[in-house]
Write a structure and sequence with these properties.
Elements lengths: L2 H12 E13 L5 E16 L5 E4 L10 H38 L2 H9 L2
Antiparallel strand pairs: 1-2, 2-3
């Protein structure tokens, strides 16, 4: 794996992207949505999970009805995304604690047998 791929993967772990697309879109072979900005209106939010920075961008069309309701829907999705991330982080912390506790409680003989596969 080259350095650029590793860097891209780490960046994807650090930033949560939330998109709401109104208009034409299609799904590619990998299941990702593709849309033409000329034929769709989009609200995009990026949440940096490391520094907590949240950036949301949208066109002025979302300030007036009927699209203003879509902006409210997107805000709810942002809250859901943040709740999911918080839950995932809590689960990771709990897993790390469980692993640390199991390592501490294992005897030196257990650790040796785990290393040797005996």
């Amino acid at each position: 794996m080259n350095l650029k791929k590793i860097e891209d993967a780490l960046e994807q772990l650090m930033v949560l992207n939330i998109r709401t697309v109104v208009g034409e879109f299609k799904e590619d072979a990998q299941g990702k949505l593709q849309y033409d900005p000329k034929k769709s209106d989009v609200i995009i939010t990026q949440i940096n999970l490391i520094d907590g920075d949240i950036t949301t961008v949208f066109s002025e069309k979302f300030l007036e009805p009927p699209l203003s309701g879509i902006r409210e829907f997107h805000a709810q999705r942002e809250q859901q995304g943040q709740a999911i991330i918080q839950g995932n982080l809590r689960a990771l912390v709990e897993l790390a604690r469980d692993l640390a506790d199991s390592e501490e409680s294992a005897s030196p003989a257990d650790n040796l047998s785990n290393l040797t596969g005996a």
